């Protein structure tokens, strides 16, 4: 006997496929949509339906965009000599929320991961090399995640860009604000000591 209607079960299944959404959260979301007025569910459905029709990849940096160029690449007040290389578009959002970076971005679309069958040819590395070789870029910040794959990807990009003579930098690593030394792992604590600054 099926207790939940098939349409609700289908919604729960689809919501459960989203990252960070477990079965219980998927159920809560589905029942929340069902309990509210149909217009809210219709608005959500319309937004999801229009998602792929209205969003594309920026022709320059490969970030999400609604036109040929994303909002960052189209902005005239950005520092065009500075490029931060990130793994995914949501990394752009994270950096932009700081309000401290005024350069441009380059979204790789992932990281090198031989286990998953992802090599350098599946990422936007060649387009990064072209951007640097076209001139005007003075510094490339390798802002990949501090994971094994992120570090490997950064090392590969470094090898590819070193012959161009562009300045290569890496995001600082260390202790998070509000963190306790006793809970820090050895690598994080070691990097915090190596990257110490004048006080």
From the structure above, extract its key features:
Dna Topoisomerase Vi A Subunit, Chain: A, domain 2, Helicase, Ruva Protein, domain 3, 199 residues, alpha/beta, four-stranded parallel beta sheet
Shape, principal axes of CA atoms: globular
**Gyration radius over CA:** 21 Å
The fold-level CATH name of the largest domain is: Dna Topoisomerase Vi A Subunit, Chain: A, domain 2
Q: Calculate the terminal CA-CA distance, rounded to whole Å.
A: 68 Å
pLDDT average, as an integer? 91
Structural class: alpha/beta
- Please give the largest β-sheet: 4 strands, parallel
Order of helices and strands: HHHEEHEHEHEHEH
Number of helices: 8
Integer count of domains: 2
Architecture overview:
- The protein has two domains: 6-54, Orthogonal Bundle (Helicase, Ruva Protein, domain 3), CATH 1.10.8; 77-170, Dna Topoisomerase Vi A Subunit, Chain: A, domain 2 (3-Layer(aba) Sandwich).
- The chain is 43% helix and 13% strand.
- The protein has helices at residues 6-15, 23-35, 38-54, 71-74, 89-98, 125-133, 148-161, 186-194; strands at residues 56-57, 64-65, 79-86, 103-107, 139-142, 167-170.
- The strands form two sheets. It has a four-stranded parallel β-sheet with strand order 4-3-5-6. A two-stranded antiparallel ribbon has the order 1-2.
- The longest helix has 17 residues, at 38-54.
């Amino acid at each position: 006997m099926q207790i939940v209607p098939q349409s609700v079960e289908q919604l729960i299944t689809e919501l459960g496929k989203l990252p960070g959404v477990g079965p219980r959260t998927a159920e809560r979301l589905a029942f929340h949509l069902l309990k509210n007025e149909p217009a809210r569910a219709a608005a959500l459905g319309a937004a999801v339906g229009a998602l792929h029709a209205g969003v594309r990849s920026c022709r320059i940096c490969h970030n999400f965009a609604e036109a040929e160029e994303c909002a960052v690449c189209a902005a005239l007040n950005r520092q065009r000599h500075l490029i931060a290389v990130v793994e995914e578009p949501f990394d752009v959002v994270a950096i932009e929320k700081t309000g401290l970076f005024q350069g441009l971005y380059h979204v790789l679309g992932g990281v090198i991961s031989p286990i998953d069958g992802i090599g350098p040819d599946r990422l936007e590395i060649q387009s990064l090399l072209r951007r640097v070789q076209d001139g005007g870029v003075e510094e490339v910040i390798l802002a990949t995640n501090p994971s094994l794959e992120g570090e490997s990807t950064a090392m590969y990009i470094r090898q590819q860009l070193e012959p161009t003579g562009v300045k290569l930098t890496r995001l600082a690593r260390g202790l998070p604000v509000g963190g306790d030394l006793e809970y820090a792992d050895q690598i994080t604590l070691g990097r915090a000591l190596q990257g110490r600054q004048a006080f």
